[in-house]
Amino acid sequence: MKFRLLVIDDEKNIREGLAEAMQGDGYDVISAENGDEGWKIFSNEDIDLVITDLKMPGLSGEELMKRILAHTPGFPVIILTGHGTVETAVTAMRDGAWDFLTKPVDLDHLSLKVKRALDNRELFFQHRRMEEELERKRQFKSIIGNSRNMREVFDTISKAAPTKASILITGESGVGKELVADAIHELSPRKDQPLIKVHCAALSPSLLESELFGHEKGAFTGAISRKRGRFELASGGTLFLDEIGEIDQNIQIKLLRVLQEKKFERVGGEQTVETDVRIIAATNKDLKAEIEKGNFREDLYFRLNVVNIHVPPLREKKDDIPILAAAFLKEFSEENNKTINGINERARSRLYAYEWPGNIRELRNCIESAVVMCQSNVITKDDLPPVLRDADDDGWINIRLGSNMAECEKIIIRETLSHCRGNKSKAAETLEIGRKTLLRKLADYELGSNENEEE
User: Fold this and answer.
1) Cβ(104)–Cβ(81) under 8 Å?
2) How far apart are CA 345 and CA 327, in angstroms?
3) Mapping DSSP to helix (H, G, I), strand (E, B) and coil, where does residue 407 land?
4) Helical H runs in 25-106?
5) Against a cut of 0.70, is the pTM above it?
6) What single DSSP character describes residue 35?
7) Left, alpha or beta for 51 (phi > 0: left; psi -120 to 50: alpha)?
8) Of the ranges 213-217, 221-225, 395-399, 427-431, which one carries the lowest mean pLDDT score?
9) Residue 454 CA: distances (Å) to CA of 173, 345, 353
10) Residue 280: which of 307, 247, 257, 260 has the closest Cα?
11) Is-contact 360 176, C-beta < 8 A?
12) Kind of pairing, strands 28-32 and 4-8?
């Protein structure tokens, strides 16, 4: 990967000399003549290291450094200073500067400091990424994802879990709504109390009512003894109501009362039972549309939807496909006593190109099938299920509105490579960029590579 440096100095000769020297060392260099211009460039470009003069008109090097470190803690900034301001430079070191050099600058010395700073930067950010990933795994357990969409989900879970608020999880079938409910309970103060789950769509209205609220002996044919319902069993803990959009109006009324008063009666009973339950509901239906149709009570919807967590479909977070596929590959390789080291580029391109109507559940089944069919140590296109193996690319790229330029470029490169069936030379030609540029961008965006992929 080619690093990009930002050189800032209000003296043109020094600025151009430093830029030329750093370019000679193999770096991409952008120059700025003052701190304000430097901050604007830093905010809008991918910069790996900043070399800045200390004393400049307007925004000083010290003020610029503080902004940079507030924006990106640990970012390497090298300060340049005259002999009369060494004391200020030392103060800047205490404030987080990587190092400082006095003018006139020894270019060999600067080159060494830049190399060390970049090496340290890589280690620092790699360590921080590992710590963040370990913390995320500790908190969210089985939820896998690092796309922007999933980071928003993780952030909402972290904020909502410690509260008592009811939560409505929305999303298509197969996106992992139950895993989100698990994470919320695990991160809540109720984690040591029961997490009780009810699949509302699997039971008839009468059975669901008994399942939720319990029943008294003789309440109906077959009720040979009193039965405690899920609300009683979950008291002090969390009750997860999956497919809440399927419950009928009568149960909706009883459920609304429990949410409002924390009280209910068992089926066939007169005794009022109090309960302390945190409700998490999930649905793949559009409840607002169901309200308009008269199928769902609006007051219940607002009671349930205090906090909404929408889990995006897999087609809207394709950046998560590699880590999801890797996790499933490891799971099923171990389960089937196989040694499979990866998925080759042509197979990966099919995973990217497919729209995944069944979401993560379908991807999981796909990888399990591929592991079973694979007869080597790498999954190929021919190991995939027919729906992926025989699919044709449609030549279109979907980009989410609101994506920044870097995200757009990443999606375009990824989808073009997929369309070219992993052939990098053809992808570079299609994109009208050099092959080396493509390889650098693949590395920058961590789009991966494989020894068996096509050239």
Assistant:
1) no
2) 17
3) helix
4) 35-44, 61-71, 86-94
5) no
6) H
7) beta
8) 395-399
9) 35, 7, 17
10) 307
11) yes
12) parallel
